[in-house]
Amino acid sequence: MAEQKIRPIKSQVLYVRMKLLHRPSRPQQERSCFHTYYKWLLWFSFSLYFFASYLIGSDPHPPLSSLRTTHVSTRESTRLSRALFESPHLAPQKPQTSPGVLKNLKVFVYDLPPKYNTDWLSNERCSNHLFASEVAIHRALLTSDVRTFDPYEADFFFVPVYVSCNFSTANGFPAIGHARSLIASAVQFISSEYQFWNRSGGSDHVFVASHDFGACFHTLEDAAIADGIPEILKNSVILQTFGVQYKHPCQDVENVVIPPYVSPESLWNTLEKAPVDGERDIWAFFRGKMEVHPKNVSGRFYSNRVRTAIWRRFNGDRRFYLRRHRFAGYQSEIARSVFCLCPLGWAPWSPRLVESVALGCVPVIIADGIRLPLLSGVRWEEISVRVAEKEVGRLGEILEEVAATNLSSIQRKLWDPRMKRALLFNSEMEEGDATWQVLEELSEKRDRSYRRARVSGQLESDR
Ligand SMILES: *[C@@H]1O[C@H](CO)[C@@H](O)[C@H](O)[C@H]1NC(C)=O
Ligand SMILES: *[C@@H]1O[C@H](CO)[C@@H](O)[C@H](O)[C@H]1NC(C)=O
Ligand SMILES: *[C@@H]1O[C@H](CO)[C@@H](O)[C@H](O)[C@H]1NC(C)=O
Ligand SMILES: *[C@@H]1O[C@H](CO)[C@@H](O)[C@H](O)[C@H]1NC(C)=O
């Protein structure tokens, strides 16, 4: 439980605390008012979104298709922070964590100038696209019980920098060229304004790097490897979507593999129309980029040519529903499918992993060596089918065999609501959801915490 300790008011602590009263709890009435307004806005946005998707029918960027949601404007949160400066005490948030589960983990969230984070939200895609876990985790932490306003009792320090929100007008994908300088500047800021970075060398500081190759911040693997992880991050903990089971320069850092972001609201909406145990009239589904003649990009081919092989071998096979064009309503197709192919792209991971699990379609993972997200909370080996890249030509046979033997047992485990919950980032953390799982994995790394080391050091010397 988040219990505020009363401490002697040292001027520095007070300064730090005041800086961090960022997202205060509001009086109940104002809060419920805000909620009503928020819900109404959400409802309206969804209606608009689905109405629009019926009209448009196809969207140039389905994985990035933005669902309009709202957020507290920067101005409002500033105003609320100010109001809180005057409030004598922070009312505790509603309890979320069962006592003991997160073992009293405490996370301090830096209040960085808006140019590092909230300014980017002016583009509403920033909080909804597949790399938006950087926004979602930040938001969830701000209202979570593990958040502490007292950096002296924190096990970990979360540094909220949004690096994936500078969308290129040419192709709609994030331009992440500025990621290194933005993060370096944020570290410069916190290490000069606060003492906590220097005392641990950043080892108890946590960053999100949700892009293709984690903290290497480049879309192409060779360039990512050549650039490497910035020196400044090498001692910290990175929450990253990228993960492989072998040694790779882009994960040569303490890390937690996290799921890509998929808007929970969009999934709930799909599930309302097509429940997981409903009829599934598509046997094997894939929609996305499948190049017939993939280009040789400095020795590498998109998807290791796996998607090309799938297209060439199974296009026209009646069991397979393969589409190369983008379509905004693709989630409803996933909900209609028994097997959903999740082949690698440039990077091994894909938002399809999350969408398939959430919509009850058995993920067929074709990405050699992938390290899947949140292994402690999601039993991937029980709820998915793995196919080696070189076996992709036998996909039909392999899936037939699964269908004839263990499909219903896989589905039963897949449809356990805990699997879906574990992969979704809610704007307010819920027990068992993705942020919760991330915190659980962080709590396993508490030996990195300066505070922890000092406390256990004292215990040692007491003995
Ligand atoms: C956004 O990305 C473009 C490259 O596509 C770059 O020129 C620009 O400086 C970036 N903007 C910021 C604020 O980093
Ligand atoms: C942390 O170390 C840097 C580099 O040595 C120094 O410039 C900075 O002032 C230090 N920060 C604090 C708060 O002492
Ligand atoms: C791809 O291009 C590289 C040079 O960039 C070349 O060495 C390699 O042989 C090519 N691979 C294939 C399969 O064409
Ligand atoms: C399902 O069966 C396949 C092939 O018979 C096997 O490789 C796989 O491990 C089984 N999966 C589960 C989750 O039982």
Fold and architecture overview:
The chain has 463 residues and is an alpha/beta fold. The protein has helices spanning 11-20, 28-56, 74-86, 133-142, 179-193, 196-200, 221-227, 264-273, 306-314, 330-335, 351-358, 380-383, 395-404, 407-414, 417-423, 434-443, 450-462; strands at 107-109, 147-148, 156-158, 205-209, 237-240, 254-257, 282-287, 296-297, 300-301, 320-323, 337-343, 362-366, 385-386. It is globular. The strands form 3 sheets. Strands 2-1-3-4-5-6 form a 6-stranded parallel beta sheet. Strands 10-7-11-12-13 form a 5-stranded parallel beta sheet. One 2-acetamido-2-deoxy-beta-D-glucopyranose binds at residues 296, 298-299. It is a single-pass type II membrane protein. GO terms for molecular function: glycosyltransferase activity.
User: What number of structural domains do the residues give?
Assistant: 3
State the share of residues found in helices, binned by percent: 25-40%
Question: What is the typical, i.e. mean, pLDDT?
Answer: 82
Topology, number of strands: 13
Strand content: 5-15%
Helix and strand pattern = HHHEHEEHHEHEEHEEEHEHEHEHEHHHHH
Oligomer: single chain
Instruction: Please give the alpha-carbon distance between the first and last residues.
Output: 29 Å
Q: Give every kind of bound small molecule, once each.
A: 2-acetamido-2-deoxy-beta-D-glucopyranose
Q: Provide the low-confidence segments as ranges.
A: 1-34, 48-95
Overall 3D shape: globular
Structural class estimated from helices and strands: alpha/beta
Radius of gyration: 23 Å
- Determine the number of helices (DSSP H or I, runs of at least 4 residues): 17
